[in-house]
Amino acid sequence: MFKLLQYYKPFSRNISLALLSNLMMSFFTVISIPILQPFLKILFNAAPTGAVKPEGGFSFKNLEAYSSWFFDNLIQEKGREGALLLVCGAIIVIFFGKNLFRYLSLFFWRRYAWVLYGTYDNNW
């Protein structure tokens, strides 16, 4: 097994960067899905629910309650337009990060595939 891994040593940098890019893309993908909820809530003029801050702070157990409290508080402090502007900015940054790391992942894997198969065409 270890003898086989020595053949990957020249490519370890590209493989490591590709794996890191895949992890970051996965992170941004997971974040990009729930960020749409407050956008739609603000956009379709849903009334703030008056949610109270969950006890214990931020955790995965009370993620929905915490996000509901956070965005209700944001609407009360900044107003609908300000909250919508901040949420739109967050959506832009998150989707840009997701697409950037997707591109970098494909870029590093493609360089690895070129070295492995000796071609840039799609017949590998």
Q: How many beta-strand elements?
A: 0
What is the subunit arrangement here?
single chain
**Helicity, in percent?**
over 70%
Into which percentage range does the β-strand content fall?
under 5%
Global outline: elongated
Q: Tell me about the biggest sheet?
A: none
Alpha-carbon distance between the termini?
25 Å
How many independent structural domains? 1
Pattern of helices and strands: HHHH
Task: Please tag this protein with its features.
71% helix, 4 helices, 124 residues, elongated, mainly alpha
Describe this entry's structure for a reader.
With 124 residues, the chain is an all-alpha fold. It has one domain (13-117). The chain has helices at 2-5, 12-32, 36-43, 63-117.
Topology:
Blueprint: H1 2-5, H2 12-32, H3 36-43, H4 63-117
Helix pairs in contact: 2-4, 3-4
Give me a quick take on this structure:
The chain is mainly alpha-helical and 124 residues long. The protein has one domain (13-117). The protein is 71% helix and 0% strand.
